[in-house]
Design a protein that fits this description.
- The protein has 319 residues and is of the alpha+beta class.
- 16% of the residues lie in helices and 25% in strands.
- Strands 3, 4, 5, 6, 7, 8, 11, 12, 13 and 14 form a ten-stranded mixed beta sheet that branches. It has a two-stranded antiparallel sheet with strand order 1-2.
Length: 319
Amino acid sequence: MRRKRRPLAAPLPQRDGIDPVRVALPTDGTWPTVRDFLVERLPVGAGVVDAMVRDGRFVDSNRAPVTPATPYLPGASVWFHRDHPPEAPVPFPLDVVHRDEHIVVVDKPHFLATMPRGSHVTQTALARLRTELGIPTLGVAHRLDRLTAGLLLCTVRPEERGAYQTLFSDRRVHKEYEAIAPYDPDVPLPRTVRSHIVKERGIIAAYEVAGAEPNSESRIELVDHRAAPLPHHLGRYRLTPHTGRTHQLRVHMSTLGLAILGDPVYPVVAEPTAPDDFRRPLQLLAKVLEFTDPVTGVAHRFVSGRTLDAWSAYDDWAR
């Protein structure tokens, strides 16, 4: 078996918790200069590339700035930091539940994406934690939806990340979620919901395919129910996913006619809200995370300290 080649160390430090971009120079390239290659390869235009070169924004593996005359060297690499558009700060803390030399477990707030993607870059759990904890090697072992709060497992050492990620892919992690949704006495619970869920890239909502082989499974239990301001009768639910499809719990609850409060996608995709609108968070919480550490052998059980506002203070949540 061939050993996986270790990635090149970046000559630039992280900025706001974000790694620099590496651009590999193709081995069969014939550009006269690195500048000429970058103009052709980067979709920002010659003017922007030239300005970045003048400012010393591109560096080689020795951290030497690329100049307009730097010759093209096939197989070499250059690094730079992208400019990211301003993001609305997510004004909620990331609470560290556990930290040791191998892992960090945090209690993620609603509205904070797990890792950089699309329009969410610096305002993500990973970027903020790298900066706040001073651990540039920090990575994530799994993901939580941006709108979902709760427990998130991060890894400290890149060489150990695969072992923790395998826990999730092999379904050796026990996860429990809590949700607040309408109460319907005509929906028999507890029950196990199985279906075939498809999530297409670029499409907000996942969907179920009737009659297809199930690829998702969730256990749905009613923990409590009570009247809220009319016409609401709320239920508090324990959700135990046995698979990890995107939006799985939200889809299954919606299918039962028990769409989770604050869900802007299921059963109907709502109009987008302003980036700084943090009202009515999705009432879904990753409550319990339980596993045996694949590196140390320690049995871990973590419980979120967060609560769901629609249950404890419905009027405040609904404002």
